[in-house]
Amino acid sequence: MARWGGRARPAMQVPSPSVREAASMYGTAVAVFLVILVAALQGSAPAESPFPFHIPLDPEGTLELSWNISYAQETIYFQLLVRELKAGVLFGMSDRGELENADLVVLWTDRDGAYFGDAWSDQKGQVHLDSQQDYQLLRAQRTPEGLYLLFKRPFGTCDPNDYLIEDGTVHLVYGFLEEPLRSLESINTSGLHTGLQRVQLLKPSIPKPALPADTRTMEIRAPDVLIPGQQTTYWCYVTELPDGFPRHHIVMYEPIVTEGNEALVHHMEVFQCAAEFETIPHFSGPCDSKMKPQRLNFCRHVLAAWALGAKAFYYPEEAGLAFGGPGSSRFLRLEVHYHNPLVITGRRDSSGIRLYYTAALRRFDAGIMELGLAYTPVMAIPPQETAFVLTGYCTDKCTQLALPASGIHIFASQLHTHLTGRKVVTVLARDGRETEIVNRDNHYSPHFQEIRMLKKVVSVQPGDVLITSCTYNTEDRRLATVGGFGILEEMCVNYVHYYPQTQLELCKSAVDPGFLHKYFRLVNRFNSEEVCTCPQASVPEQFASVPWNSFNREVLKALYGFAPISMHCNRSSAVRFQGEWNRQPLPEIVSRLEEPTPHCPASQAQSPAGPTVLNISGGKG
Amino acid sequence: MARWGGRARPAMQVPSPSVREAASMYGTAVAVFLVILVAALQGSAPAESPFPFHIPLDPEGTLELSWNISYAQETIYFQLLVRELKAGVLFGMSDRGELENADLVVLWTDRDGAYFGDAWSDQKGQVHLDSQQDYQLLRAQRTPEGLYLLFKRPFGTCDPNDYLIEDGTVHLVYGFLEEPLRSLESINTSGLHTGLQRVQLLKPSIPKPALPADTRTMEIRAPDVLIPGQQTTYWCYVTELPDGFPRHHIVMYEPIVTEGNEALVHHMEVFQCAAEFETIPHFSGPCDSKMKPQRLNFCRHVLAAWALGAKAFYYPEEAGLAFGGPGSSRFLRLEVHYHNPLVITGRRDSSGIRLYYTAALRRFDAGIMELGLAYTPVMAIPPQETAFVLTGYCTDKCTQLALPASGIHIFASQLHTHLTGRKVVTVLARDGRETEIVNRDNHYSPHFQEIRMLKKVVSVQPGDVLITSCTYNTEDRRLATVGGFGILEEMCVNYVHYYPQTQLELCKSAVDPGFLHKYFRLVNRFNSEEVCTCPQASVPEQFASVPWNSFNREVLKALYGFAPISMHCNRSSAVRFQGEWNRQPLPEIVSRLEEPTPHCPASQAQSPAGPTVLNISGGKG
């Protein structure tokens, strides 16, 4: 656990009620730069970098964030590098990356000096100083590279204007102040140059498993791609394993990002193609190109996935992901998502993923299992909903049949929805009681789908139930959004990575179609026969004809919470395990896990009541 | 506003982390009684009694509570008289009078001394000292009458273990400690002699209107009743106004409780009989007696109502309640509810109500209007519900038609449900937005139905909507509870007292019966035709045959929140105003009032961290 900086206090912290008073106190100090030294920081610096995690915030690379996590203190230490400071910067977090209702730390200047304060923006983007200062400045240092700000913040602050830092995606926001201010309160974020960056802040602190002595590496990179001058590009590149490449275990992988392109390479995935095809044509080009060979659509088995801000992915010491050898395709597809909002042209890139693999196969093959909802239109979200929840089940009957007696161990998870997904969670239930969260993301974004190592391996026994719930926002839709493969349809999936591998590839559910049919008839009856939900119509057509009044919405919710389900308990995407899987009862859950309430740090009352005054440039006083 | 005792501190308050340490510090003090003086208390005592409100807590009269309210400080000052102190007492509040999950103040003794502390009981009745001490002892004084404890508490404390003191009913609880304790934590309330008393703690602070010079009084009392030796008796007594008694205005009334029977007389009401009957036979006896004349059932027009802990009821200066004169019955029925849990026998009582009336009629007649749900079985509560809400409407169409252009002014309210009612609230909405609470009781009890003067008169304009919602608990029912007159059926009514009187006596609603019929057919369809909801069956029979799974519950809720309503917009209980009142749309509410969140007093951090040590008897140390 990182303990540096633990109980440190900035030497010049001013608990003053009035910023102007404080400013005049220090306004006379003329110094080119002033370092607020933190004694503890210098005492016991850890061997490796104190900030293991890095991310560029803006596409120009003006702001760069590094951070470290103390789970013991429930605190994050941030280091923000501001390469070209004008009159100040804003940095913070918000629910989904908006600059309104954001939790902010602001470095700002007036004619007298510079200040650092915990602030927040209201729903109109107006910035206010926080009555409780939870971002605590530890050091401010000007270097040739730029200004370094070191500060810390507890995960939870108990301040209703503050963001609660949770597991999963965090939407970081930033903004630039161009001119000195009269006061902090004069800032409205709508008038600033701002942006957002998604990242998993609370990375798990998992000890790195030792790599086998014979570990070799293989780089899957699209060589010398000319990044297109457009905001979004998915680049597809096909490569192949050497002829006769035998079965190996992937034990780790890491990103290779071409230097200078750190802010452009958003995410990358390596897929294995279907073994059915003898060969797959080589290709290097945009995935939506008309030139793309059709067969690339059959390269969907994930071998590795990386997204911005992630570090290396390690398999548990006992397990590895098999690739190569008979029965598997030699062909791999690399997909690189370039995010180029400034429409930079002429930039070349050779980013990709470096696989670490061993011929000395580990004890267990790792596997990937799909949990959640089956891809069917019977599961639908009414339009204009702000938080509609759909739930998919992996029932006790399926796990009883398909899992080994000793159970399986889930060590990583990739959550997946299409465009309207806002939250995803998978919960484990045993004997009708929810016992554990497998993975939860309360700020899930379909634009940021990482494979995440779990903080704690979750063991699933035969007879356990896995419940995956997705929350959708369809405020911008005029018709119901049905389940399906299309980008405007929805999914609710958790790809869990586990070992030992089993034959169970897919454990998902959907409402019984007969009960949905009763629902359409009911809607028909309650709406004075105005609506024709013709029995010949398809399910999407029937959903499209529902008048979405409160009753039809509530009854659909009640139906999904009550009606029996069709289980998809499958060996592969089409082959079910033997048994009766239609009209299965919903798992009965008698005891739910409660959302954890953040416990308020005892040190809360000790935080300064006003902003910290600092002097980072020639004062005028 | 009462300001005495404002910033007072007990002289011996010990902010000690350890009770035992504190005990040993003071254990050597030997004093028969010790007074903790409060300087501020002696400075500026108000002219009238500092404790305008009184209530006996236990039927033996051992504990007597007096209190005063400072709305400016949002604090209640309590004076608890303990007539026969053994080893200690518990006093406090809980949601519905249970001794578990109660917010308690405890006076307890060990071998070294006596202590006063803020405590709470968990769901098993185990008592714990509160980490935040919000009951603050101001004085402890032994007198020949008993021990007086003076303490105060803010309405809200922001401590999750504390009760929030709100408008409406408060369930006070108490208990007696028979033996000295090793520690507070050794108390479990299940082993004690305990009880509950309901009271409206937050009485409104309304200036008393001046009474007319010619005010006369009339006492309606059942003379010399021998209180039956049983727990519950409703006593009925018929009396009459003098022959030719002309029209008067009642301007005030107050209880007359026979001395010594304060803990036995639970509530009293005076009703006027229906004018249709020339005469009503005289009677004095239990209301459920077979000897009771049938005609007494037609004496239901409330003239006055009082319940334990209430003081005098005043009409606003501009209005009075008409009685006497042509067109109204001369006959009155007094109903007294004796609550006799100790089954005391041989006690005689002549309690009743004293009416203050004037012949100089005031400008306005006061009226009573029924809001809420019509008495019909179409509104029903499924069994096993902990908090099922039914809502009745007084629509804009009805108020537009029936109220005068200048509107009406509601100054008092009596909430009414049968046995499963737990909360009642009436909200005023204008132009689709909720603007004001007319009356709310979050701890409503059907055993405690007072007419309550409102803290603030609520004006209702033509076109306004009045929404009355009742929350029911049917955990102990096996079948649905339908609306109706029977004691096992339910009601949801707010009798509002207002002026000027209008012809609108009843403004209530119920779901459209046609839509309920559709619901029964839907239930039939969704439950595999197992249930026969025969179309010939009555509504209660149909409700009795519904299998109460989650779907049928949720859909009933959705139906009540969506289906059109039948309006009862009536001149008298049977005569509707002219117009179409069937299949009316539900009022559309675009903006709801939020439940007020208690704002935490700034002084909170100053409260002592441990109990207060006091010495009220000869110490042993």
What this model shows, in words?
- The structure is a homodimer.
- The first copy, chain A, folds into 3 domains: about 55-205, Sandwich (Immunoglobulin-like), CATH 2.60.40; about 210-360, Jelly Rolls, CATH 2.60.120; about 365-595, Jelly Rolls.
- Chain A has 6 helices and 38 strands.
- Chain A is about 10% helix and about 40% strand.
- In chain A, the strands form 8 sheets. In chain A, strands 4, 5, 6, 7, 10, 11 and 38 form a 7-stranded antiparallel beta sheet that branches. A 7-stranded mixed beta sheet of chain A has the order 31-28-34-25-35-36-37. In chain A, strands 12, 15, 19, 20, 23 and 24 form a 6-stranded mixed beta sheet that branches.
- Chain A has about 625 residues and is mostly beta strands.
- The interface of A and B includes residues 525 and 605 of A.
- Chains A, B: It catalyses: dopamine + 2 L-ascorbate + O2 = (R)-noradrenaline + 2 monodehydro-L-ascorbate radical + H2O.
- Chains A, B: Pathway: Catecholamine biosynthesis; (R)-noradrenaline biosynthesis; (R)-noradrenaline from dopamine: step 1/1.
- Chains A, B: Its EC number is 1.14.17.1.
